[in-house]
Fold these 4 entries.
Entry 1:
Amino acid sequence: MADLYYLGVDGGGTTCRARLTDAAGRRLGEGVAGSANLTLGIAVAVPAILQAADRAFAAAGLPDSAKAATRAGFGLAGANVPSLAEAVRAAPLPFAAVALASDAVIACLGAHGGGDGAILIVGTGSQGLAIVAGEVRTVGGWGFAVSDDASGAILGRAAARAAVAAVDGLAMRTALTEAVLAGLGGSPAHAVAWAATARPRDYGGFVPLVLEHAAQGDPVALDLLAAATAEAVALLDRLLALGAKRIALMGGLADTYRERLPARFADVIVPPRGDALDGAVALARSAVVRHDA
């Protein structure tokens, strides 16, 4: 069967996006559906993938029968868990072939035009990923409890700790610590209650305060940012040690770190060439059609 179309899918915790192209790479249609994070279960993720795909085909004005002439590339949150990835592969899917990877892999492929390179994602969480000679290597990204040291969640937690320490006279009391303490409820006792149910995104909510006060010269905010930048530098250095020659910074803290990096990274940090859906389409081109199916 001749392959006429390529479908890229980017499935995250909030939305699932799909992009359909022809063999020449021209965009034909896109679609959006709900979460396709595999950790939520195959019963949630697969319908979202199919719904986003349906909408992309509909936007392109193509019938369902075109799916049989389509190679698909799925970049899904949770696909780095082998059991979840196998469950997706075992699901009944209407495409000629499917290639599966994590959402971080397609972000990297998109950033570097489908070729070798690396990314450092610095948002609520943080993770480095490098593709060198076709091999995927990851650095960090193991979650708030044990990793993600360059993340907004960890930076926000550091601000919360500084605010509590300032009340106890163990650290400097500044406009930032006062603002963060107010966000925690106004006292260390209230902070304990707040922290009992706080999630990484809740800690990340203090990052705008850190950035605002750093711009005003607040010494605690500046120290916190310096420490967070040092964590980002450690991840970048590890990606270079793995053989990466080009690294794209992504996520909400990308610009914050970029302007604070040592000069030695000037020739290493590059702007992304494309987005995650571009990477998913590149992944689709690697999908192998089973002619005996």
Note: The first helix runs from residue 42 to 60.
Entry 2:
Amino acid sequence: MIRLEKVQKAAQRLENIAQKTPLAYAPILSELSGYNIYLKKDNLQVTGSFKLRGAFNKIATLIESGDRRGVVAASAGNHAQGVAFGAKYFKIDATIFMPEATPLNKVQGVKANGANVVLKGSNYDEAYSFAIEYAKEKNLSFVHPFADDEVIAGQGSIFLEIFKEIDNLDAIIVPVGGGGLISGIAVAAKELNPNIKVIGIASAGAPAMANSFKKGRALSTNSVRTIADGIAVKNASEFTLEYILKLVDDILLVCDDEIASGILFLLERQKLLVEGAGAVGVAALLHNKIDLEPNSNVAIILSGGNIDVTMLNLIIEKGLLKSYRKMKLVVTLIDKPGALEEFSHLMREVSANIVHIGYDRTSTDLEFGDAHVTVALETKGEHHQEQIRDILRDNGYLFKEEH
């Protein structure tokens, strides 16, 4: 296992490469939680993710040893961009294997740095298998996204930046997938201050590392399903688990709905665009998963911001529905002139703004002479939505809600 010195050496290599991303006090989160919350914004890193740190450090050590044959990697996106960036910097070839369902923005980010992208497999683990075989066949160096000491050391550089600004942290909250980030952070944190609690947050849809931590041995899951694609790892790594069992205090789980609320909170209240994997720490905080002493000084790692726009749109839409700021109804009207106008007048009475409307008179579940109006309304909270239901019932309308 590496020591602090290796993390410090990695930080030196990254000195003029990686951004020293902002560490900012978060007053709203602090008030909500009762802790003093600081956000480490590595979503603003050069490639949009902390993964640049470990990938660049690994490639730099290869170059220092005289190995310029080129590199191979497997990644759901962020590690791929870090490897591509490092290979371009040192002017060597890079071939990246990515799952077939990888968001287009991440594929484009890799190609923009000159790497060759091969889309293979339905998830990271399948892409990884193809990449390992390719590296052996071509006699190239494989840059692992987490199970590598130099990668772990590079990821640990993020804690050194935090510690320079706040040396009295009580806890640090870290996203967990393969475990490289939390391993590097834990190495640095525990040597600089053994009393700092290192708490990992994993997705309930990809719980391999959390389960392994609880059982004390590397476990796998049958499948992974989560909006946090950056931490969607099926098989726990024995390599990083050794670090985690020795240095990490706890690993907690958050579900997709909680992750989505974290993304929306950061976007709306903190003005930060953060992907699912990067938002898990805030999600855990918002849903009272973190149990620390009041007024503890807590840093949360926002590990990446490379979210697919389609996914972001879906999260915003669902978030508006869950927070009672949007309401979707299917209302049955009599199909006659003026019926839609009467319905619109009722909505005006309760100050519900119609933002979308559709009119259907041909559905097979309709009685003759009826029509369905599908309507989306801007609303002002739970009480306002109850007012809308009441006025529809009072006026004899049949309706159902869509979620």
Note: The chain has three domains: 4-49+148-318, 52-142, 324-402.
Entry 3:
Amino acid sequence: MSQYRQTGNYLYLIGIVLVAVLGGLLFGYDTAVISGAESGLQSFFRSASDFAYSDAIHGFTTASALIGCVIGALLSGLLSARFGRKKTLFIAAILFLLSALGSGYPETFFFKKDMPCLALLVAFNAFRVLGGIGVGLASAICPMYIAEVSPAGRRGRLVSWNQFAIIFGQLVVYFVNYLIIRSHINDPALSAWTAQVGWRLMFVSEAVPAALFALLILTVPESPRYLVLSSKDDAALKVLSNINGEARAREIIAQIKETAVEKKEPIMAYGFMVIFIGCMLSVFQQIIGINAVLYFAPRIFESLGVTDNMLFTVIMGIINITFTLVAVFTVEKLGRKPLLISGSVGMAIGALSVAISNVATLPAWVPVAGIMLYSASFMFSWGPICWVYIAELFPNTIRSQATAVAVAFQWVFNFVVSSTFVPLYNYSHAVAYALYGVICIVAAIFVWRLVPETKGKTLEEMSRLWKK
């Protein structure tokens, strides 16, 4: 009797994916925690006596984690190819944990508590960069790992769950931030409490999911495609048999071997276009401006006249979750391209309606609805589908390198958008949103003309597609 399963176990696959998407949840949590903490953080460092905490410095501090995201993304290819996907995700979990504790209490070991100074700001940013490295690693490896364990017919949906986890992580931290503020809402000295304690609690709260991820990632198997590329066929066959059944598992291993004669090929082995398209998908996902809205949501709603801006941020998070589920349940039916194109159009309408409301006298609900439409359209399109493409677009032998480059491009432009949003927004609300709206239209044209549909194709078929 064979030692391998004859039929696949879907629950086994779901268990693996649920653990992997915790990395996505931490990705969302870490990048969005700043939205609630940034005002308290600004007040704290503005009381420093040895330097002036300017808006430019605050913009950099708000976006400093993104520097780490670029570093983590660039390292992801090297680490995942050398140590495997599983060990790299464990490293990311430890970085998340250290960053959460260090960002909340950067004074630990070296500084006096509640004594803001330039050196303390440097320490805070160092901890945020550390967490950013974890985000960069998780953002590249989580969808890659899920794609490499998933059957072709379920891959798009399962990778989309990673985006759901990212948005759910953002919703969780919005809610946590809201509860932290609400706990002292009747305190006359709320602003002072937020500047001294509130922002610290927001950052430290991430330690709980980070520790859970570090423990659970040890229980999942290594990616079977990485195992084959590392000449560990028996281990790969065991994992694939548990997911697909032995007969199909042997077919998949044969296909992997056909497309992976060597463990590595030059990144341009399949031509320029595959790298260009992968990188431009990442670039467009950022320059359409979504993270500027997510990071500064409370401030944006306040400027639109919303009284309880943190509550509206939570409402937006719930809407984001709902529309991410639209992508999860339609990506295998409708395909990748239709979702990207329709989402781009919806984002353009939402962004341009906000721009128009800033130059014309319109009811307050119009720009609020525009922001919600803009965000919701992203959540069923560029949010999940970009990650699906990055996870499945590249051939096996260049996937680690190409994914690292594409994700690094994403974080570079995330930093550009996030660090320029405040001065651009302060210069002109209308110009900011008009610019994002026009870019959304360009993104739709790019997808329509250049991006191939990958629905239903195996990862091994990507090699044949690009060789053509």
Note: DSSP finds 21 helices and no strands in the chain.
Entry 4:
Amino acid sequence: MLGSLRFRLPALFLLGCVLSGLIATLIAIRFFQDYARTRAIAELRSESVGIVQLYARQAGVQEVPVDKLQAAIGGDQIFYVPIAPGVKLFTGPLRELPPSAIQPANLVSGRPATVNLTVNGKKYIAVAQPLKIIDQLFGAMVVAKPVSQLRSRWVTLVERLTLALGGGVIIAGLLGVYLSRRITDPLLRLSTAADEVAAGNYDVELPEPHGGDEIAHLTGRFRDMASRLAESEQLSRNFLMSVSHELRTPLTAIRGHVAALREGVFEDPEAREASLGVIGEEALRLERLVGDVLDLAKLDAHRFTVLQEEVDMEQLCERAYTAFGEEARRRGIEYRRDFHASPVIMTDGDRVLQIISNLLSNAFRWTPEGGRVELELSASNGSISVAVADTGPGITSEERDRIFRPFWSRDGGGTGLGLAIANELAMALGGRIELRTEPGQGSRFELLLPGPS
């Protein structure tokens, strides 16, 4: 519990708020103390000036009553520091301080001086105003405030700031708990969903993303991942079923013909030769299937080796074209070639032939009887183009994103490796395959390879 995000997030959030509040409180108290002291000194200066002016107006007329001086400054304390002893300036008792309390040398300039006093164990902050009559310095009037009075002001401030800090901490704690739940609840649900996915259950319930924050982004990517994993597993199952079927069919034919030959069913030499021919064709079919699987594994592992040799593209395309001539004749498909160039390039001829053969095989598979298949060769702008066009059913926009994926087949038949291998081989040779298609309008696969340098 203590190590979970649900606890740590609000705890760290609350701790940050408390530390920030304490620092702000200390700074506020310090500023307030400085302000209160400055304000108090300004008030004391003003009061001391007023007292001296009051005395100056009445000097020589009458002695100034102390109670009148006290009324002029309100609740602050007033003291007198005699510098010219024996001169009585006031009527009534007025507390006197020794000259050492204010250091009279500071008053020679005629300006007030700020001093700290301690009278009878009580601390004061005070301003000493020089008292002159006809340029004669008689003493100094000292107006003082108790330091405790200033302290009471910022103590009140501390109490109010403490209440504000406590309320802020409560609100921050509630907000932190709310935010932590809002963050951790989707994460916990994602964690549970991840456990389900790890167990092989890809149909998991995920929280609905709200807004465009990181949690929503993570949820969306997790949903895409689960969907891709489910699709990948389905494709793997389809592949295993397809490969099992593709392997079982030739193996069954081979086993049947071998058994018949052993039992002497075919006594006619021509019949035996035909049976051996079937065995050979089925063996080649098995070899192609195994070769496709191995090629895909090598391409995925980046262990595929590309040869560099001079390749006459016109001869290579003619060879690929001829290989499907018999199938075109048998199914009544209009089969055409259109070669506009005779480029010779440095590439791996066998792999280029494999790509073109895979594209032609895919075209013949989806072209209905009586349809049309075209093979085109051209060269322009430093690249070689080999295009295979058909009049099949075309490909939808959804299928276009999947058609080059391994093990995916539109009708669930075949291994789903032909186009995937062709696409990977094209990229390994430094080229690419482009597709133009419309549903019901056929498809056009174009292999683009670097031209001669």
Note: The first helix runs from residue 5 to 58.
